[in-house]
């Protein structure tokens, strides 16, 4: 199995009190909050750790300016697999270990990562059966009554990459990640080998007009039980004054076509990326056949008010199975640097970003 998913994520923040309040309101269970750090631990055992910008526990040099995820720590199932991964990484990049035995390196795209042994916890989770006009599995039974949103897992994390095909292939080569789906020209979805969620990481193409020209954190997604819990969280965050990054574009809550997931984004303070409530995604294993999608067709199944580029009668079915990875070739980078986009991808704007 080896990598079981995200063990912890370290954020660098400019206002520890403000960011601690954001994540508390978001529903993350508090483990500890002090003047120098805040730690939140989810039911799976995954942690969100907030540290002041410039803290010695954060990677140096800083992978990008400002607030956001500075280090992703992947959890490994046992010592033998950790050693195997460390040896593989060392054939291509410099590898170090800290006093606790955690393995550290920087990926070719500029992403700092770490790996450590992780005793991942089983999660207790429940959703109400869904009635239809033909079948009523919830007969004489009310839906689960929820009071607030409680994220259970870290489902995935997303970064802008200057070479998104190369970023995936590095993870595949050394960490054993599985290719799941490709939104052509936008990015690649990949799954850690010890998880079943549709993707554990997504790399977004830095060539897009919405993107920076360098590695940067985009968003992090948390697993919720159902659409009710997602909407409850959205309402409560709005009541507390936190911004929804898609309120004026995709109507707040939407569903992707590629991964089937229902989603809602909240803006992390200080332009620190986004936090996503995430439910009803596809779950899969190594029998899955990867697919390549046109970005317009794959992005949205529905939204309350989808951006113009993702709606209309001309959104044609455009998906093919891609086990041979032929879809990768037009997007491989022979050299570093941002390439100008052509065609419909060049018309993407910041308003379209979170529908991708």
Can you tell me about this structure?
This protein is of the alpha+beta class. The chain has one domain: 2,3-Dihydroxybiphenyl 1,2-Dioxygenase, domain 1, CATH 3.10.180.10. 15% of the residues lie in helices and 28% in strands. The protein has helices at 16-26, 79-90, 164-175, 227-239, 295-299; strands spanning 3-13, 30-33, 38-41, 47-52, 68-76, 96-97, 103-106, 112-117, 153-161, 178-183, 187-191, 201-205, 216-223, 254-255, 262-267, 274-279, 291-293, 302-303, 319-321. A hairpin with a 5-residue loop joins β7 and β8. The longest helix is centred in the middle third of the chain and has 13 residues, at 227-239. The mean pLDDT is 93.
- Give the name of the CATH architecture: Roll
> CATH superfamily, please?
2,3-Dihydroxybiphenyl 1,2-Dioxygenase, domain 1
CATH class group: Alpha Beta
* Uncertain ranges: none
What is the distance, rounded to the nearest whole angstrom, between the alpha carbons of the first and last residues?
A: 30 Å
Strand content: 25-35%
